[in-house]
């Protein structure tokens, strides 16, 4: 039996994205593992604010939990796609099989894990905001904190702020585009 065109296209798309997915996953795992290691090994090495190493551990654990929870629906999606190939689009209007397939794919996702992932991301955001106040608050006393603890926390906060600002700008642009398109 020859595989369908959509199955082959899906396989090619997955294989072309695989290196990118692997790099992003390794990067997303490296950051929390580095923060966790530094936070645990240097727990008592920040006199300026002893909460910062604890904060590093908490944020690292939240990142790992978020990755774990996020991967559940990804695995379920891959399994669904493997067991249920996407039906072909029909030009004559008989697309009931495609609509049914999309509904089954949507219902395949775990709403509990989707909610849990959103909740963990919200807690993560709040933790980053609190951590930014603590880390930037000791900038003038950074010599009273271990360099690994302070600079890792500092750059993590800086990168997080940049990420949240860029994300908010993109979200704003998407909302504006949708508003313009829906008004036409």
UniProtKB/TrEMBL annotation:
UniProt entry keywords in alphabetical sequence: Membrane, Transmembrane, Transmembrane helix
Top-level taxonomic group: Eukaryota
Membrane spanning residue stretches: 12-40, 52-69, 112-136, 148-181
Protein known as: Uncharacterized protein
Organism from which the protein derives: Caenorhabditis nigoni
């Amino acid at each position: 039996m020859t595989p369908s065109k959509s199955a082959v296209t899906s396989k090619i798309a997955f294989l072309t994205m695989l290196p990118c997915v692997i790099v992003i996953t390794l990067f997303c795992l490296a950051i929390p593992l580095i923060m966790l290691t530094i936070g645990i090994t240097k727990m008592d090495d920040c006199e300026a604010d002893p909460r910062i190493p604890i904060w590093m551990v908490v944020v690292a654990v939240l990142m790992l939990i978020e990755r774990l929870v996020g991967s559940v629906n990804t695995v379920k999606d891959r399994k669904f796609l493997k067991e249920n190939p996407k039906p072909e689009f029909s030009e004559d209007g008989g697309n009931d099989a495609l609509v049914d397939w999309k509904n089954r794919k949507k219902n395949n996702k775990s709403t509990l894990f989707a909610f849990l992932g959103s909740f963990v991301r919200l807690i993560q955001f709040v933790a980053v905001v609190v951590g930014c106040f603590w880390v930037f608050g000791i900038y003038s006393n950074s010599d009273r904190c271990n360099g690994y603890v302070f600079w890792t926390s500092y750059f993590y906060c800086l990168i997080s702020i940049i990420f949240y600002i860029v994300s908010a700008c993109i979200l704003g642009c998407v909302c504006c585009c949708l508003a313009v398109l829906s008004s036409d």
